[in-house]
Amino acid sequence: MDHSPNPSHPEKVYFFGTCVVDLFFPAAGLAGIKLLQAAGLEVIFPQGQSCCGQPAYNSGFLDEARAVAWSQIKLFSKDYPVILPSGSCAGMMKKHYPSLFRGRPEQAEAEDFAARVYELTQFLVDVLDMKFDDLGEPTKVTWHPSCHSMREMGVGDQPKSLLRQLSKVELVELPRERECCGFGGTFSVRQPEVSAAMVTDKIDAIAETGAEMVVSGDCGCLLNIGGALEKAESRAHPKHIAEFLWERTHGRR
Amino acid sequence: MAAAEFRDAATRALADPQLRANFRRAMDGLMTKRAAMFADRDEWTALRSLGAAVRARSLLQLPELLERLEAKLTENGVHVHWAETVDQGNAIFKQILSRHDATRLVKGKSMVSEEIGLNHALEADGIEVIEADLGEYIIQLDHEKPSHIIMPAIHKNKQQIARLFSQKIKDAAYTEDVDRLTGLARQVLRRKFAEADAGVSGVNVAVAETGTLVLVENEGNGRMCTTIPKLHIAVMGLEKVVERLEEVPPVLSLLTRSATAQPITTYVNMITGPRRPGEKDGPEEVHLVILDNGRSRVFADPQLRNTLRCIRCGACMNHCPVYTRVGGHAYPGVYPGPIGKILTPQILGMDVAGDLPHASSLCNACVEVCPVEIPIASLLVRLRGEAIRPEPGAVKGAGSHADPTEAWTWRGWALAYRVPALYRLTTFLLTRFGWALPGRMPLLKEWTSVRSRPRFASQTLHELARREKVSNQ
Asked: What is the nearest CA distance from B258 to chain A, expressed in angstroms?
């Protein structure tokens, strides 16, 4: 998996919130912004932003995906890193934008943009090397790595290393953690039975850990897993890692 | 086969706890064993790059390599036949067999023979075909198709096989002892090998420079099928060729380690022609049937061509969270799992299997383990696009799933998501009034089968960012 060269001392970064965060988990997005600000960075959130285009792309509507993708690229034109609180949307921008614009006049700009894209925990660990003091109550959590964070963005131990910094957080490994939760965007409604079987197995695995919270870096997964946990009246709750880190290290807002 | 058939078949499979337990246990075991085989990441990366390069290079010069293969095989005394379609493939078999008055066949494991429905076609002409691979023999007794390309009877557990043998094999007492079960099959098959007029086999790799057919297997049945009967007919898809003999070891190493976590199989057969004068064994006549069945069309598109890199190891299905839950019988065609999701729609046509590329969460688990770096997820997305394109295209049946309503929905989506004022309006309406969406509306209804309905936030991140005075540019 290729990584972008680490910008040594970025002063400004762009934040791309993603449409799922915008509609369902805005607190996670804001926590991501605050974590970056707490590291002394100036965070720019272009108000014209919407979505990476992945829903249309994965449905085979490449022209529509390209139109939305290009409208985003233009908003992030300065040479600052672009940080996303989502491995999946980051993967779309980093991995698929270059192929989406290959052989077109926008190619160079799309490639330049893609090279600046980071998943949040990658940036916090690899670039900022952030250290946290845990201010929260003792708790037990498990980590759900998203497929695209692992297999498109090459995110490995970074998020877990952040969670391990928290002295009062017990991190329990999720059985079969590398297996997909069954979200897959339109997959969840086009193959609802298979998707349901996958998420049911996932929440059973979460229950097995005895964790109070399942922490993840992708809100698509959290929407899926969280919805299933709630319907099953499980004791475990979903939480985005940015929000979890912010709450435990800076207290609830 | 209708487009919705995967979903229906998958739903039936999901309701079978025995089937799900069999697959889960088997796939968990295969994944663990494979991981141990490739524990050295650097070695894996290097070998995989080599394997991918061998396959990609072979495909780049495919027409030329096939010509060289034919010339060399002919020189070696092997008769080469070309079958453009499934029917032509079966007709070639029938012609060869009738020339030899052959009515009893033993067959080693071959997915291409499944692809052309060989058993069925020959049995209709009164020819007996006995599957000599243990797994294939088991499913033949039960009149099933393979549920996995390497382990065709993996959907059955020991007890199910014990019951089947006691019912279908003459004078067989019920036993769950694996050695005794294997012994029962061996007794039947040994007799069939001795009586057979012809042996049929598949091909794992064909080498153009030497005219060698390479066949790997663990039971010895492949060797028996290709050496005991007087007549041997091999069958392969036209993509199986490589140029040089030295390209075989990396491909085989990737194949056997990915498939069954073996450094090498018990038998590696390299067939370079019929019995020569003075030799004591081997068939008197060897034929190779090379099947196209839509592969030329796949080959013609530079992106889709990557589908033909496949060496049929089955690692993609072993690691697929969808396959693990529904098993191989849920998929239309004969190739299940991720490779089937990209190959079957191209062979059968998008009109027949156009929804199959959607039977994936695009989790990329298959991409991660594919030993020849087939970009399966990208090909799935490409085929999704082919299904809904407004006009016919490179793929058979392209455009057959074009739906004006869906097209207009995405056009509307693209407009709302690239014009900031419209996006702001859309998200404002959803965050304020999204709760009022009727629970029985399509999509929401499917979503809430096992999930509570998604709750829109009261304010968007855009609004929170403005409130917190986060800089806009």
From this structure: 18
HSE on the CB side for B417, CA within 13 Å?
25
Closest CA–CA distance from residue A60 to any residue of chain B (Å): 4
B313 and B382 assigned to the same domain: yes
Among residues B179, B105, B146, B139, the alpha carbon closest in space to that of B335 is found at B146
B120 within some domain: yes
ipTM: 0.95
A230, A236, A240, A244: CA torsion to nearest 10: 140
CB contact under 8 A, A22 and B462: yes
List per-block mean pLDDT (blocks of 10 residues) for chain A, which spans 253 residues.
Answer: 56 97 98 97 98 97 98 97 98 98 98 98 96 96 98 97 98 98 96 98 98 98 98 97 96 55
Instruction: Name chain A contacts of B381, Cβ cutoff 8 Å.
Output: 57-58, 60
CB B214 within 8 A of CB B204: yes
Residue-wise pLDDT tens digits, B401-414: 999 999 999 999 99
Q: Is residue B399 part of a domain?
A: no
Q: Compute, in degrees rounded to 10, the torsion defined by CA atoms A45, B422, A52, B376.
A: 170
Residue ranges of domains in chain A, CATH in brackets: 12-126 (3.40.50), 132-250 (3.40.50.1860)
pTM score, whole prediction: 0.96
Nearest CA in chain A to B303: A99
Contact between chains at B473 and A46 (C-beta distance less than 8 A): yes
Nearest CA among B381, B6, B462, B317 for reference residue A45: B462
Interface of A with B in 114-153 (CB under 8 A): 147-148, 151-152
For B426-459, write each residue's pLDDT tens digit: 999 999 999 999 988 889 999 999 999 999 999 9
Looking only at the bridges linking them, the beta strands covering A117-119 and A82-84 are parallel
- Residue in chain A closest to B456 (alpha carbons) equals A24
Helix pair angle (B62-75, B41-60), 10° resolution: 80
* Contact call for B417 and A68, based on CB within 8 A: yes
Q: How many domains does chain B have?
A: 3
Phi, psi (deg, nearest 5) at residue B206: -115, 130
Residue where a domain stops, chosen among B278, B293, B308: B293
Identify residue B44 by its one-letter amino acid code: W
Dist CA A106 CA B108 (whole Å): 53
Neighbours of A175 (CB within 10 A): 14
In a domain, B14, yes or no: no
Asked if residue B103 and residue B76 are part of one domain, the reply reads yes
What are the DSSP calls for A110-138, one per residue? HHHHHHTEEEHHHIIIIIT-------S--
Same domain, B273 and B308: no
| Torsion from C-alpha of B111, B116, B120, B125, nearest 10 degrees | -130
Q: In the block, which residue shows the tokens 């557990």?
A: B157
Same domain flag for B211 and B262 = yes
Residue at which a domain ends, from B293, B310, B327: B293
Q: At what angle do helices B404-418 and B420-433 cross, to 10 degrees?
A: 110
* Torsion angle defined by CA atoms of residues A64, A66, A72 and A76, in that order, rounded to the nearest 10 degrees: 180
**Which structural domain, as residue segments, surrounds residue B324?**
297-386
Beta-carbon neighbour count of residue B148 at 10 Å?
Answer: 24
Same domain, B250 and B333: no
Bridge-partner residues for A111, per DSSP? none
Same domain, B144 and B231: yes
Q: How remote is the C-alpha of A148 from its chain's centroid? A: 9
Quote the tokens at residue A46. Answer: 């272009």
Instruction: State how far residue B205 is from chain A, nearest Cα, in angstroms.
Output: 30
Of B385, B418, B464, the CB nearest to A62: B385
Residues facing A82 on adjacent strands: A14, A117
Residue A118 contacts residue A83 (beta carbons within 8 Å):
yes
